[in-house]
Design goal:
457 residues; 16% helix; elongated; binds 2-acetamido-2-deoxy-beta-D-glucopyranose; 25 strands
Length: 457
């Protein structure tokens, strides 16, 4: 190791005093890199032999923590005992050490005394293996992050003994082949900040003890086979920012207690069996930016309260049997980029205010019972292009003056073809001029009649 320091006269005295200290520091840093506890070194080599395909680590890297021969996928730091300790293991994807087809879960990792983070990504792919926690004393009380992701051969259930990792903040077990219920002990891990169990085959109900994870910021249970209601105790997770429960078989309605999640910005409940009402306090979820709840058997009118959640960028409520009109309040969602309401039973007209949704780039209202004149001008229609879908609404039609814009699956008003999704709108030049005149005539008569009717009331 090379040590250098610049000289300045007033500091000379100080420098002379500290030079002996500095030189010992340089030497000790150098020694530190090779200085590992032999037991820990042996444990590390055994882990590498269980998992890695890359090389013979004992020969190619006899000093895994040495700075100059730094071992990708391994992180070390100097402990209070002046020895190097492994703090990070990162396997599976290049440039980190890749895993051999026969790699199995190395429970020896829990014997590395200073381990802080572990990643096994696309590592256990052929030989079936389970997460196991060694019977002997669990050393890794320092472990803060355990990420086992995209391991198709990682089978079995989540061991309850994981709960003895008392410092764990991030537990990611996503995209494995895990089965069974979540052991209730997991919910005693009160330091957990992120819990991701998505894309497995986990079953059973989510226990009410989930409310104990008071530090949780992210909870992802999506793409499993969970059943039963969403526990009411979810409202105790006051720090929660991301909640993803999509693609399970949850029943019942969204718990009223959700209104107590002021930081929630992402909520995904799509593809479940949720029904019934929205929480009364829906309008309190003022941090919501993404609300994704396609494909649930809701069969109620759309809640007007979404119009008060001004931060919403994405609102997806497709395929859920919503009836009634689209609340005009949704026109206030000026930051909205995506609105999906297709495959419902919505009636009435498209709110005129939608034309001023200046950030919208994806609007899908297809397959409803919407009617009336589409309230969008040609610049709006051009901007959205194929990201606008109004097809499958037999009563909708496009004002002839905008009809040359783009194909949006809607016929031109006044044309007698109700086969909307198939008719291409006329080019303006092709449209017979009588249509324009008669259309405006009919519209004018309609407006007069409308005013007349209302003046009678
Ligand atoms: C670690 O090294 C420092 C100086 O390099 C020394 O003062 C200290 O006593 C050492 N600690 C142990 C536990 O050896
Ligand atoms: C809308 O988006 C802009 C830009 O991303 C942001 O500055 C603004 O705060 C957002 N408005 C609301 C109400 O969230
Ligand atoms: C289209 O409508 C928007 C919003 O109502 C408006 O700002 C814009 O000027 C209109 N463009 C044209 C070409 O009329
Ligand atoms: C519009 O939606 C219909 C079904 O509602 C679908 O068949 C069609 O492909 C969609 N069009 C576009 C451009 O995505
Ligand atoms: C709109 O919804 C339909 C029906 O679900 C779907 O086919 C289409 O891809 C969606 N998006 C657009 C832009 O049409
Ligand atoms: C409807 O269309 C048919 C042919 O497609 C045409 O003969 C008929 O005149 C049209 N009727 C009206 C009212 O426009
Ligand atoms: C719509 O088009 C299809 C196929 O071209 C035709 O069979 C059907 O009769 C049409 N329906 C109406 C209401 O015009």
């Amino acid at each position: 190791m090379y040590c250098s320091f610049s000289l300045s006269l007033p500091l000379l005295l100080l420098l002379i005093m500290s030079i002996s200290f500095l030189s010992t520091l340089c030497v000790s840093t150098n020694q530190q890199s090779t200085n590992m506890d032999p037991h820990e070194l042996e444990t590390l080599f055994k882990i590498m032999e269980t998992v890695s395909s890359d090389q013979n680590w004992r020969i190619s890297h006899p000093y895994p923590c040495k700075l100059s021969s730094s071992w990708l996928g391994i992180g070390c730091k100097k402990g209070f005992d002046n020895k190097s300790h492994v703090t990070r293991l990162d396997f599976g994807t290049r440039p980190n050490p890749t895993c051999k087809p026969t790699a199995t879960f190395p429970n020896l990792i829990f014997q590395l005394p200073n381990l802080e983070s572990v990643f096994f990504i696309q590592c256990f792919t052929h030989s079936k293996t389970r997460i196991s926690v060694s019977r002997n004393r669990l050393f890794s009380s320092s472990l803060q992050q355990l990420s086992l992701r995209s391991n198709p051969a990682l089978i079995g259930s989540i061991p309850s003994q994981l709960s003895s990792l008392k410092s764990l903040q991030v537990l990611t077990l996503s995209q494995n082949s895990l089965i069974g219920q979540i052991p209730v002990e997991i919910f005693s891990m009160s330091f957990l900040v992120h819990l991701d169990l998505s894309y497995n085959k986990l079953t059973g109900k989510v226990p009410h003890q989930i409310g104990n994870l008071q530090n949780l910021v992210g909870l992802d249970l999506s793409y499993n086979k969970f059943i039963g209601p969403i526990p009411d105790t979810i409202g105790q997770l006051g720090m929660l920012q991301k909640l993803d429960l999509s693609s399970n078989a949850f029943t019942g309605s969204i718990p009223e207690s959700t209104e107590n999640l002021p930081s929630l910005s992402f909520m995904a409940l799509s593809n479940n069996k949720l029904s019934g009402k929205f929480p009364k306090g829906l309008a309190k979820l003022l941090s919501l930016q993404y609300f994704l709840m396609d494909d649930n058997p809701m069969f109620i009118p759309l809640p007007v309260e979404f119009g008060q959640l001004k931060k919403l960028q994405e609102l997806r409520l497709a395929g859920s049997g919503y009836s009634g009109t689209i609340p005009a309040s949704y026109s206030q969602l000026l930051n909205l980029t995506t609105l999906s309401l297709q495959n419902n039973k919505l009636t009435g007209e498209i709110p005129v205010g939608f034309s001023s949704l200046s950030h919208i780039y994806h609007l899908n209202l297809s397959r409803n019972f919407l009617g009336g004149v589409v309230p969008f001008n040609s610049s709006f229609l051009k901007r959205l292009g194929r990201n606008l879908n109004l097809s499958g609404n037999p009563g909708l039609c496009l004002s002839p003056s905008e009809a040359d814009a783009v194909f949006i699956g809607v016929g031109v008003c006044g044309s007698n073809n109700t086969n909307n999704s198939i008719t291409k709108p006329f080019k303006k030049s092709e449209a017979p001029s009588e249509y324009n005149i008669s259309f405006f005539l009919v519209a004018a008569i309609g407006i007069v009649a409308f005013h007349y009717l209302f003046s009678l009331v």
